[in-house]
């Protein structure tokens, strides 16, 4: 995964490390929507210089995870129902396109990645179903890894990177809403695995459409997104 996504390479500089940490804190809801991003506080929390932090916040602004307030500074991007629906529709569009290409091109190594990613996710979903919510971030990382494995053979780095960036924004809403759909989502993941091994892209896109729409409605049902 690229620097803009959940699986993060080892940072080579203090600035890159701070960027990755701030971005992760936004995506995983530790920095909540609307929070003011004061440079002195960020300097203490993330160990980067003021000038480096300005560069980081401008970078995150270009990713629409941070908004600029003119001369007042920066804050974490707000959330809205309309924005969630837009992000979900874009995720569905990109992922269905990538699934079709990946299913056509995938080889045995691709199948192995998909099966292994699903196994990790399914085990974590079992723990979540048993009431253990102490590993929520790990669960969502496994969720991302499974969906990324499904499209990993599509042959387009641009498509994979764009999907990953949109997936992160979709994930942010799920983390803010603490949205977990339990057995329904687990069953949909199992159907996606079956479709991948059968190379049935049409069925996979049908399941994915239901999966994403269900995630949106479940997140909205929590009442935490207005």
Automatic annotation (TrEMBL):
Keywords: DNA-binding, Transcription, Transcription regulation. InterPro entries: GntR_C, TF_FadR/GntR_C, Tscrpt_reg_HTH_GntR, WH-like_DNA-bd_sf, WH_DNA-bd_sf. PROSITE patterns: HTH_GNTR. Pfam families: FCD (PF07729), GntR (PF00392). The keyword Glycosyltransferase does not apply. Residues 12-79 form the HTH gntR-type domain. This is FCD domain-containing protein. It comes from Microvirga splendida.
């Amino acid at each position: 995964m690229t620097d803009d996504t959940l699986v993060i390479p080892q940072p080579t500089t203090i600035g890159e490390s701070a960027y990755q940490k701030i971005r992760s804190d936004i995506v995983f809801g530790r920095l909540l929507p609307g929070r003011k991003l004061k440079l002195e506080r960020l300097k203490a929390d993330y160990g980067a210089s003021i000038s480096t932090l300005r560069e980081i916040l401008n970078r995150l602004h270009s990713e629409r995870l941070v908004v600029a307030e003119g001369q007042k500074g920066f804050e974490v991007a707000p959330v809205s129902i309309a924005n969630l629906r837009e992000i979900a529709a874009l995720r569905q569009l990109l992922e269905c396109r990538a699934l079709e290409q990946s299913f056509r091109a995938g080889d045995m190594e691709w199948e192995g990645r998909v099966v292994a990613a699903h196994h990790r996710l399914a085990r974590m979903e079992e723990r979540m179903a048993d009431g253990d919510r102490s590993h929520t971030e790990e669960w969502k990382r496994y969720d991302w890894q499974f969906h990324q494995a499904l499209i990993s053979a599509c042959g387009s780095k641009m498509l994979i990177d764009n999907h990953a960036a949109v997936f992160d924004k979709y994930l942010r809403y799920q983390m803010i809403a603490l949205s977990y759909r339990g057995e329904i989502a687990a069953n949909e993941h199992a159907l996606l695995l079956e479709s991948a091994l059968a190379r049935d892209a049409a069925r996979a896109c049908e399941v994915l459409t239901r999966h994403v729409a269900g995630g949106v409605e479940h997140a909205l049902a929590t009442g935490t997104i207005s």
